[in-house]
Amino acid sequence: MLEAKKVAFRYATDGPWLFQGLDIDIKPGEIVGLPGSSGKGKSTLAKTLAGYMKPHQGSIRIDGHPLQQKAFNPVQLLFQHPELAVNPRWKIKKLLAEAAAPSSDLLTELSIDESWMERYPHELSGGELQRVCLARALHPKTQYLLCDEMTSMLDALTQAIIWKAVLGIAKKRNLGLLVISHDSALISSLCRRTLDYFIQPV
Hints:
Elements: E1 2-9, E2 19-26, E3 31-35, H1 42-49, E4 57-62, E5 65-66, E6 75-78, H2 92-98, H3 104-109, H4 126-137, E7 144-148, H5 156-173, E8 176-181, H6 184-190, E9 193-194
Parallel strand pairs: 3-8, 3-9, 6-7, 7-8
Antiparallel strand pairs: 1-2, 1-4, 4-5
Helix pairs in contact: 2-4
């Protein structure tokens, strides 16, 4: 499983802790929710779990081994703003090729049209570009997908289409999912277990 033990993070050496002492585990095939309002540290936690940032305390392991940045990271992170995750000067064809050219079956499952291949990121809608980012993240070696407000900027229909595809692929490939969102209804509908670290007490 993907496991974090006593992880803590702060931006300044002597600054306040953004979070501290968090224990997290996500098993293959499990869908876990991480709710909470903006600015509480959810995205920073996601970045530490994916290896983008190092926690100041604690450890992150996959199947008992330390998380390492190798040729391909088995923990993939999907951002709220897909345009920030791609090179704007690359065509869609090159963006997909960088991620080992997803299979035609995967492109079909994500409703990615062949006509997009010669376009640039800014020529796609937000929902279309997010599906491209999903195709990039769903490498054959991906084991865990961290979805950080992945569909919060999209309309309800596009959200439904994307989540249906993601859940189907996750089930088929036994992927572990972390659903990060301020939308409690979304988390309730998708997740059997939630981590309430960033929920303000009433």
